[in-house]
Amino acid sequence: MITGLCALIVFSPALGIRAYAKNSGNFTDAGVQPLAVTVTFYDDYDSRGWCWTTTSPVADPVVQLLPEGDEDWTAAETLAASTAVTDGAYYTHKAYKTDMQPGDYIYRVGDGTVWSDTGKIRIDDGADGFTFLYTTDPQDYDEVGFTQWANLVAKAYELYPDAAFMANGGDIVNDSHDALDHDMDQWIYAMDLPKAQLMNSVFVPAAGNHDSWATSFTDRFTIDYQGAVQTGGYYTFTYGDMFFAVLNTNESGAGIQAQAEWLSEQLAATDKTWKIVMQHKGLISTGDHSNESDVAAWREALLPVMARYKVDLMLQGHDHVYVRSKPYLYGESNGGYYNGRTPNMEETLITEYRDGEEITYSVEPSGTFYVTANYAGRKSYAPVDYDKTLIYPAINPYNGKAMSVEIKQQMFVSVRICGNTLEYNAYTFDGTNAELYDTYNVKKNTFLPVEELLKEAPAAGEVTVFDAEKIEEALDAYGELVPRAQDALSSEALAKIESYSELPLADYLAAYPVARAIAELGEAEASAEFSSALKQLKRLYADLTESQQALVSNYAEIAAAENSMIDIYAADAVTKMISRYRAGLDGLTIEEVRLAYAALTPVQQALVTGTEGLDLTIPAPAESQSPSSCNSSLSVVAAGVTGLVLLAILQRRREK
């Protein structure tokens, strides 16, 4: 059953015919067989857009969708597709679905009878980290050239089978850029030959100048484009903790400014840690195009945006060279913002070990690095004489060369984002083997754990001995930060760091173990172990300096514990006396028990057990006995019993 059209049919330009003068006609006989199936993010990571081509009209084009593992297509969700016509011989069909639930799905596209191969998609929020692939400029014109592109795609996914998507920086085809020079067959080759990978992943395209004629780019991909779509489209999506924007550099003049303003709004609104922008024409590159006026206009508009909103990486194409720049400083500077033209010439590199292998990070580079990933087709150009006051290539860690190179091999890139790290690897491909050529790894926001430690720590004026280790941990963590990370801490956190410098932290740390041991002493008990623990604590306290002793604010608890021990011993002696009295031992009388009990303090009496059924009150004196003599007699007896009790206590201590 077809799902409601209002929710699922993508709106596309009004049905019309656009003539393609150079159509090769290689797919005329395909009829309604789906060709060049593309899967894109429609508006975010949990959406998908489908587009495919036929060379005959289709009455009811649809997408069918099932949870993976279920092969009953009669129960599939069916999405109706819209259709556009080009040259009266090529038909593109589009559908999309948003707000999909996490999980794995299978799909197929077709007319209800003739179907594409079955593809797979996975809806995942990327919260646990993810990898994506990047290529640019396949830009070929025949099956031979696009077969090389397809081989590159296959190798990239062989190395990274779980890649969440493949981004492409544009110039997907060679001949789709003006009214006299365009060929639909190139689009079919480009998307159909690597279908084994692209139908089972997501393709994230940017429009290149060779893709720019008469909506030929936007007709190929089902995406929620923003702004004008005549020469290409621009859009954003999120994945995990990453914001990703794709721009259309086929625009000029007011179109550049409109995208710069739109991008600023999008970047200002996102709360994602990592920000990546992709466009065809490179702002910081060394190919021949880098000196052209249209590139200069884009550079003028976007470099300040990259810096103000702290974009981490810009992916570029167009120049057919390999370039990776130094990071260009971003964020605030001298009461304003960096202008995007200042390279970070003093990166801090730290080498760590993971799974037994070294990995080197640039820690808090605090800037945007720019990549032109050579090409994925056959066209190779050499770097030119670029503006060396603006463009600063980075250094390859493997061969020590500046990263402005004509490599003359296809290339692809992997980008891994996980937590506060981004790991970038660039590979060359000779048609059979891929070889790691360049790497650059970034670790950012290393100050955030320290910020949290300091947020939980007290102000200097409120510090107690029990805060000593927490403050030491925060100070040690602060000391391990690189300078740029230290500077990134909030003013409140930095103020605490400054105030802690006035604390006698060494004294706090010396006193802390004693105070902690007292706090952990627990309930007093009549045992040799407890008595020994008290003695040990008193020795430790005695070893402290006077200033350190003053910090042990709970030392009075030792005296309280000693008093509790005396109470326990006294009560225990009377409890045993009662027990022996009940057993008829030692000739004890009730009067003696009463006197012993009366000699205890109320706290000690409350600890005596076995008193059930006994009247332990001392009776009033007989009438024949004067009160004074009676009281005197009782006092003597009570004193004697108390002494016996105390002797018993002392004896018990000796025995222990």
Protein topology:
Layout: H1 5-8, E1 35-40, E2 48-54, E3 62-67, E4 77-80, E5 82-86, E6 90-97, E7 103-110, E8 119-123, E9 130-135, H2 143-159, E10 166-168, E11 176-178, E12 181-182, H3 184-192, H4 195-198, E13 203-205, E14 235-239, E15 242-246, H5 254-269, E16 274-278, H6 293-308, E17 313-316, E18 322-324, E19 328-329, E20 332-333, E21 336-337, E22 348-354, E23 357-363, E24 367-373, E25 404-405, E26 410-418, E27 421-429, E28 434-443, H7 448-456, H8 468-480, H9 483-487, H10 491-500, H11 505-519, H12 528-543, H13 546-551, H14 556-582, H15 590-598, H16 602-607, H17 627-655
Helix pairs in contact: 5-6, 7-8, 8-11, 12-14, 14-15, 14-17, 15-17
Could you describe the 3D structure shown?
With 656 residues, the protein is of the alpha+beta class. It has 3 domains: 125-443, Purple Acid Phosphatase, chain A, domain 2 (4-Layer Sandwich); 448-560, no CATH class; 561-655, no CATH class. 32% of the residues lie in helices and 22% in strands. It has 17 helices and 28 strands. An 8-stranded mixed beta sheet has the order 13-10-9-26-27-28-23-22, with helices on one face. A hairpin with a 2-residue loop joins strand 11 (176-178) and strand 12 (181-182). Helix 15 crosses helix 17. The longest helix has 29 residues, at 627-655. The termini are far apart. Residues 1-21, 627-642 and 649-656 have low confidence and may be disordered.
Q: What is the CATH superfamily label of the largest domain? A: Metallo-dependent phosphatases
Uncertain segments: 1-21, 627-642, 649-656
Q: What's the CATH architecture of the largest domain?
A: 4-Layer Sandwich
Strand content: 15-25%
* Range of helix content: 25-40%
